[in-house]
Amino acid sequence: MPQPHISIVTTLYRSEGFLDEFVKKCYAALESMGCTEFEIVMVNDGSPDNSLQKTLQLKQAYPQIKAINLSRNFGHHYALVAGMKYAKGDLIFIIDCDLEVDPAILKTFYAELKTNNCDVVYGYQENRKGKFLEKKFGGLFWKMFNWLSDTQIPPNPATERLMTKKYVDALLQLGDKNIFLAGMMYWSGFNQKGVAITKNLRTGKSSYTLRKRVTLLIEAISSFSAYPLKLLFKTGILLTFLSFCYGFFLVIRKILKPEIILPGYTSLAILILFSTGLIMTSLGLFGIYLEKMYTQVKNRPLFIIKDIYE
């Protein structure tokens, strides 16, 4: 099989219902570009439905499909890393297969990459799709990340991006065990250009629940910033200073007016409760960063491949 010019990489998790249309649209996009040397790398991330079986059926009609079956569910970002690692194309295009973004966008990305001679063309949403809470939380996610991190990411980036092999090789060399791809992709540098895209509403329920989004935010911030630790230190200094000032105030007031009764049980209970909450929060925050170091030091593989179907 000749060296592919373009590798399309996607992940599979509860994706069975999308695959027929997704593959047809990928082939149509590549045909419109006149690209005849390509591959479609589909990574099964422990999907509980028949996504892998459906992929293998499609492979009989579309031989350019390469299926990678992971040993279990490792997570979306880890599965994308697996796909990028085993993609052989000169250019690598990652996209979700749920058809929120039409694979035809590849043609636009390809034109932008060639015109601007850049290493990466990525998609972003000017206006987020979805319901009110989804829009607000999504926007807040990136604002909080940029506020707490030294790595600044353009708001509302999408999964979809077209990258040169040189850039992908550099990305894979980072060696992070705690994967947050959006941060890694911008931290890596290179010449990157954004293209505004419109996402369609997803058919069916998204696997990204509110709990997973909050977890991802914690993962993102703790992987790319030590600012929360610095903020905790500053808060501790401020509270110590305020406590000293308040104690000094009470002593002076008692000296000047001995008849005044100092605040008793209620204020003391509130201070103890507040201090305990701050200590527990501090220990939890330290625990998050300690867990990051523990994961990195263990140096386990990001994923385990069970089967590859080429």
Labels describing this entry:
16% strand, 10 helices, 310 residues, 8 strands, single chain, 8-stranded mixed β-sheet, alpha/beta
**Oligomeric state of the chains in view:** single chain
Q: Strand-residue fraction?
A: 15-25%
Structural class estimated from helices and strands: alpha/beta
Q: Report helical residue fraction.
A: 40-55%
Q: How much is the radius of gyration in Å?
A: 25 Å
User: How far apart lie the N and C ends?
Assistant: 10 Å
Largest sheet: 8 strands, mixed
Could you give the count of β-strands? Answer: 8
Helices, by number, come to 10
Average pLDDT figure: 78
Order of helices and strands: EHEHEHEHEHEHHEHHHE
Strands ordered across the widest β-sheet = 7-5-6-4-1-2-3-8
> Low-confidence parts, pLDDT < 50 over ≥5 residues?
none
Please tell me what the overall shape is: elongated
Summarize the structure in words.
The radius of gyration is 25 Å and the shape is elongated. The chain is of the alpha/beta class. The protein has an eight-stranded mixed β-sheet with strand order 7-5-6-4-1-2-3-8, sandwiched between helices. The termini are close together. The mean pLDDT is 78. The chain contains ten helices and eight strands. Strand 1, helix 1 (19-33) and strand 2 form a beta-alpha-beta unit.
